[in-house]
Amino acid sequence: MEGRAFRGKSKLMFALIPLFLVACGGDDSDIATVRLTNDFNNAEMDFQPPWTICESSYLDTEFGLVGIGETSSEMEVVPGLDYVLMVAAWDDPTCSPENCLPIASKSEEEVVPGQTRTIAINLPNHQGPCPPEGVAPIPQAQYERILELWPAYGFKPYDNRTENPQCSE
Question: What 3-state class would DSSP assign to 47?
Fold first, then answer.
């Protein structure tokens, strides 16, 4: 009788092992898959600014360059809530620093474990240091993060952000 009880308990233990592995992060459900789309050429918008996304980062994962109308490669990220941080060049697919500005998504974007998502960045979904009317100014926290990620661009400090060369054009 005790032998049957032990076998029953051992079957239960083996049945529970997959649950323990999932709970302890033993599978891929604790990641999300994300792509970024440069949607600045969206024909449904009244204006299509010619922004090339030269650098991009989301949830501490770098996505790199995303040309107008293009979509980045899929990247695995730790799920969470964050802004898409970018350096974008106005009408310059070569991304010359003098044509670049730090920009970010207007809203925090969220991904959950196991999700596959494409985040589109376009005119109403971005903010920058010297925005035209109707575009939100970039908050200092996002601006400072961009300066830390890509110091080589030499962007002005936040208090002088409208003095970046691209702002005066």
Answer: coil
C-alpha to C-alpha distance for 74 and 34, rounded to whole angstroms: 5
Q: Domain-by-domain residue ranges, the chain? A: 1-27, 31-168
- The CA–CA distances, whole Å, from 78 to 28, 37, 120 equal 10, 19, 19
- Pairing between β-strand 116-121 and β-strand 32-38 as defined by DSSP bridges: parallel
Q: Write the CB contacts of 53 (distance below 8 Å, at least 6 apart in sequence).
A: 36, 38, 65, 66, 67, 86, 87, 88, 121
Angle (CA) 140-58-62 rounded to 5° is 110
Q: What gap in Å lies between CA 109 and CA 36, rounded to an integer?
A: 11
Per-residue pLDDT reduced to its tens digit, 18-66 = 444 444 444 556 999 999 999 999 999 888 999 999 999 999 999 999 9
Token output for 130: 């010297």
- Report residue 169 as tokens: 């054009």
